[in-house]
Design brief:
By secondary structure, the protein is an all-beta fold. It has no helices and six strands. It has a single domain, classed as Lipocalin. The chain has a five-stranded antiparallel β-barrel. It is globular, with a radius of gyration of 12 Å.
């Protein structure tokens, strides 16, 4: 992954297994809403990094796998991009995760 952007990723409060993320790229916000295939406790990372090869990677529905907790998150999308970050709200125990997200 040759390009990167800063942003945030966090669970949707009160909606089990859902998350949102937003990253600023060339003064444009790229966001995704996603869901995990299993329950994941609420989490927040206000200092997340998105790594990607092209803006075209950040379109449509994409599957991912990764890990949430104890103090970090890492999601790896099947088409290449990754989201990593330190958690502000700790998650214990950590969980291996999978699911999908829609970029918009």
């Amino acid at each position: 992954m040759s390009l990167s952007a800063k942003g945030f990723i966090r669970s949707v409060p009160g909606v089990a297994g859902r998350f949102v993320c937003t990253f600023l790229i060339n003064n444009i916000l790229y966001s995704a809403t996603g869901s995990f295939s299993t329950a994941v406790p609420e989490f927040i990372s206000d200092d997340a990094t998105l790594k990607y090869d092209s803006i075209g990677d950040l379109t449509s529905t994409r599957s991912f796998s990764g890990r949430v907790g104890v103090d970090d998150i890492a999601l790896i999308f099947r088409n290449g991009p990754t989201i990593t970050g330190r958690l502000t709200k700790l998650v214990n125990p950590p969980s291996d995760v999978s699911g999908s997200a829609v970029w918009h």
